[in-house]
Amino acid sequence: MTTEPVFRVALRGGALLTSPRWNKGTAFSAAERKAFGLIGRLPHKINSLDDQCNRAYDQLCAHENDLRKNTFLQSMKDQNWVLYYALIGRHLRELMPIIYTPTEADAIANYSHLFRRSEGLYLTFTQEDTMEEDFLEQTKGRDIDLVVCSDAEAILGIGDQGVGGIGIASAKSTVYTLLAGMDPSKTLSVTLDVGTNNQDLLKDPLYVGWPHERVRGDDYDRFIDKFVQLVRKNYPHSLLHFEDFGVTNANRLLERYREQHTVFNDDVQGTGAVTLACIMSAVGVTKSRLADQRFVIYGAGSAGLGITRQLRDGLVNIDNLSVEEANKRFYLLDKFGLVRQSLGPSKIRDALHEFVRSDEEWSGVAANDQGEIGLLEVVKKVKPTVLIGCSTHAGAFTEDVVRAMAKGTDRPIILPLSNPSRLHEVKPQDANDWTDGKALLATGSPFPPCKQPGGKEYIVAECNNALIYPGLGFGAVLAQSRTLTDTMIISGTRRLASLAPALKDPDDALLPDFGDAPAVNLEVAIAVAEQAIDEGSAGVSWKKEDVRERAKAFQWRPIYGTYEYNPEGAQE
Fold it and tell me: Which amino acids does the record list as binding a divalent metal cation (predicted)?
């Protein structure tokens, strides 16, 4: 936007001041105060948005701990969207951990005790018969581009949180606005309350969700399907974002619906995409190819499997390997050790079958008393070039493991991605020391640079999904794509990888700095939309050359604009 927008607003007086979308607080001009009946409702001084941000930041800093800061910011969001997003945008690196991981996990764990007001749409299994009526009542008259939903079975490393899942859906929607410019008035956060198996919640008299064990099987699938079909019917061009579903449902639901609607699962696709981008930049440093790598994935849950599949898709689309050839590059380990045939069907999930290793290739390798082959034995035999951790098993990449890996490759690529930081598989400084400074590193949480011999520092990249998923979703919405295809995700991933500082300086980070996330996600979105137009999955009539201009015009920005009173209704 090069000029200040003008909005025609129907609200007046107290109704205007209590609308988070339209409230300006002390920033209402003298003319606006008169036109909207605000004289006497506000103090004399007229503040700029910068003034308000400075005041709000002072108030924020007065809070003693991160959870209280999270609560303060949530209250601000309930009062004034522009101020909320402007403040966070000015302190992005500092405040993202407050409104998202790790602090949001604490807020979600305490959701019922912190509850003050609704922050989205609550769909409960016991009210399945009236779901359509309830959905339409709460979305009536709204133009929705983004729906973020969660059943809260696997929240941010803290597991099953029941109705508290609305917190992660709301946080994800917020990140889409902050980093991609999605209009917050066109986003919908949904919790799908199908019960909880968290005994602490079930025993808590203040728990505000449905106090019942989780629904499974056909009943669960029917409930989820009814919701998805409502989104498809009423908002056919929206992005439906699945968040923090459990390992038995995350990939299954993604595969079920990805050809029917533009759906996205950040735990599966977002984690995989940002990891692929990170490894692509590492491969650029080593002057090799993706197809030359040997991948050991430690942790084969939703994230680990999503990473594996995204890397496999990269091998297929970028280096033209067949799916079968690409699958052979991966060695997955879960709680039963290496995923191989002799574990049997009781220990191998259906989703892992295409990555099961044969027993013949592991003859002569020592297994434990349960017949399981551990990480060190796998590393010694495979000599991986890439070691990825998404296990939440703190310290799993021991000195023996890392040194064994360093013997098999000149520049080991090591990614301990588990969150929060206390659950990381190895400290970056240790991995750096044990490889004599040769490791290429990225982590799931921010870490300081590694000290190198001679006083140099190695910048550790933060492999943060927020560097890519807002852009992937924004690009799909911008192009009105009918689906979010693998090739669209690969295009966004390649654009992110091309922005890596390490491609210019091998001692720099494998991914862009998180402070640059808004600009980075815009580039990702442009690449996604261009690919959608190229491959014919877009629903827009404009040309590929128009994408950048259209993307910038489509973005919502936290600015107030000028208000004109229009009793017939609000519009831009």
Answer: 243-244, 267
